[in-house]
Design goal:
alpha/beta; TIM Barrel; 15% strand; binds 2-phosphoglycolic acid
Amino acid sequence: MSRQYYIAGNWKMHKTRAEAAELAKTLVSQLKDGKHKYLVAPSFTSLETVAAIVKGSNILLGAQNVAAEEQGAHTGEVSVLQLKDLGVQVVILGHSERRHTYKEDDALINKKVKLALKHGFDVILCIGETLEEREAGQAEVVCESQTLWGLSSVSATDLAKVTIAYEPVWAIGTGKTASPEDAEAIHAYIRKVIARLYGEDAAQKLVIQYGGSVKPDNAAQLMDKENIDGALVGGAALKPDTFVPIAKFA
Ligand code: PGA
């Protein structure tokens, strides 16, 4: 397998600029010899600060969301043009907190995916089922549907700029991690869906991260699975003590 492991930290609505700067500086220094691909996604308010720190390092800069429109009368939203201006390279879209707490639907997420790709960003598209959906045996159907919707009208060329993050909603921030076997089953299924849409070669190249209570003591077992190519980390990304061991998992 030639896919590179990709470890991303989603800082969510945490940290002032000074706190974000401190974490970013420590990560730049502690991950400089890291072998995998890395990303941090601070809050919008800390992007400029963190951009200056990660510039020239092996850590990419991500945003946690973006507006579906380029610019205009959209109070409280942040545009692709503004993110580009700050040096943001990657946008996380469709995170379960956006889907469930802020009611973003698949059509809106697809619009954002296409706009971000059009403006040259890489995208991490998050998908994942709720506990009720899993218990009803719907996990695969839900993940397939979110993938199909999220990538609707995305070209094969643009797919190369997309990473999928499988994040079962019941595992996010709950301390309950999907077992490596359960996660692997969904990752393999998603890769099949991509093969059907874009061909086997594109499917083999696609990086699929797992997210949901990834910690230093479960990261290696998860990423040991054939179809798990990295992690999208929330809580454990807020401290070097927990993020660095995940990022440097062996
Ligand atoms: P968690 O969050 O690691 O705190 O479960 C993951 C995520 O929401 O990306």
